[in-house]
Amino acid sequence: MKKDSLKSEIAFQKTIYFSGVVILLLLLGIFFTLLFSSLPSIKAFGLKFLTGREWDPVSGNFAALPFLAGTLLTSFLALVISIPFSLSIALLLGEYSKGGAISSFLTGMVELLAGIPSVIYGFWGLFILVPVIRFIELKLGLVPYGVGIFTASLILSVMIIPYSASLGKEVINLVPRELKEAAYSLGGTKFEVIKRVILPYARSGIFAGILLSLGRALGETMAVTMVIGNSHFLPTSIFSPSNTMASVIANEFTEAVDTLYLSSLIEIGLLLFLITTIVNIAGRYIINKVSVEVR
Amino acid sequence: MQDKTLFRIMQDRFFKLVVMLLAFLSTLPLLWILFYIFKNGISVINWRFLVNLPKPVGEISGGISNAIVGTSILVLISCIVSIPVGIASGIYLSEHRKSRLSYFVRLSVEVLQGVPSIVIGIIAYLWIVKPVGSFSALAGGIALGIMMLPVIVRSTEETLKLIPYYLKEASLALGVPYYKTILKVILPTGLSGILTGVLLGIARIAGETAPLLFTAFGSPFMNVNILKPVNSLPLLIFNYAMSPYADWQKIAWGASVVLVVMVLFLNLIAKMVAKKWKTIS
Question: Cβ B19–A92 below 8 Å, yes or no?
């Protein structure tokens, strides 16, 4: 009886230990699989893969600069568009109206927004946003593509608002009550307390939230793929059609028949993996540091 | 002096107005999306739409039954793949909070959560589709399972951390072995918290398209063989939305309604379970 129970004890400990190890191995496995599968392309192009402008499956020349540029442009543009909105939601939920009908309405809306699948954002963007942008482009005297970096950024910004807003609300809630009350008791208005106390105090947390949202935006695939226009050339303006790293993989992976083509696409995947990982770890590190300091 | 106060009050009011305005403006896209989907999709949905197979362009009364079945198969496979490992490592993390391994596991979970879904698709392709030699539901399910794993680990860990330590101490003091304490006392106490995590995980993956593009691949037929390609709701929406045929686009709107309702419903249940659990503890 006792021996049995000891055996089960050891089996249990081993099971949970190995499950932990499995997760660690999974991540390492992902990294090394990507690395080994992109070796042919790394060997063939080296660092030129990052700086060359030509992506030509017919001649077998692959370089990722247009996609790197497309990814960075769409993501940063999306961040810039979304920051005022997500910061407003965070301030409203964290400071202006804690609890009450307005905040529960807004919280519910934000949660719904986060729950809608990416492919549906893309579908909506394709049928609503693209014609609208095309109209605007006609009015501005541009080539009326409709699809392109700007359209993709608009959709992306809507998609990352819930994420950055909830992170922003968390860090605003971390601001110590004594600091705020001290500022109010000196006669500060809410605006002044926000500007001089809350925002400076929550600054690094908000920055981390923006980094984590950037990580989200960089890897977003479906919605972007559907509205970005799939061009292989370096973007010339924010209205030009382009491709992000994720969208080029989504579009061409099943068509890539020869080894070099496939491995170039996988190398783009590797780059995407590395960039998002670095951005995420940096963001998490800052957030953890901020919350430890507060406690 | 008086003027300055007035200016400050006006400034404060103005700022509040701007914050309110921006916050509510950002809910507009959601209302717009929901309105548009339901406007276009609700008329398509009827019983035949749910039970029929897709038809070629030109034939009417095509349905989405194979996508509904396919999504269910994919979700089932990903649950089988991710729930046991996820819960077990969640237990490990909450029981060994400061060990070196748990530091790295926690980091891996955070990194995994941020890995773009398309990259997970590549991995499932390289690990399963390539060796097996065919697109399959299995590959798609595993890709989705990898995406669901971090959600389950984190929710298990967070839930178990919140369980009062005296429950564990009481059980151990009665001479109950450690593993039985965890399995029979701690886990059941936190069950609804873990269930919330699982539901949120399913809601997250049910709408995923990118990892399925070159794993489950999609198929116009009904298929329950997990080694063959299957269709799924998001894949069907993507393929039909990008097609030039109005008939197919209409079906995509209908499928969107089904998918959105499903995902929102899952979120709602998860929230209700979470609320119930919070009031108990």
Answer: yes
Judged by CB atoms closer than 8 Å, whether chains meet at B207 and A34 is answered as no
Test B26 with A220 for CB contact under 8 angstroms. no
Given this model, what pLDDT does residue A257 score?
Answer: 82
Total-model pTM: 0.93
**Are the C-beta atoms of residues B94 and B161 closer than 8 Å to each other?**
yes
Report residue A67: phi and psi, to 5°: -75, -35
Identity of the residue numbered A64: A
The distance of B261 to chain A (nearest Cα, Å) reads 10
Residues of A in contact with B5 (CB under 8 A): none
How far is A107 from A274, CA to CA, in rounded Å?
33
B263–A117: do the CB atoms touch at under 8 Å?
yes
What's the fold here for domain A47-294? MetI-like fold (1.10.3720)
**Distance in angstroms (rounded) separating the CA atoms of residues A90 and A76:** 20
| Fold designation for B64-232 | MetI-like fold (1.10.3720)
Extents of the domains making up chain A: 2-37, 47-294
Which regions of chain B are under pLDDT 50?
A: none
Which residues, other chains included, contact A132 with Cβ-Cβ below 8 Å and sequence gap of 6+?
none
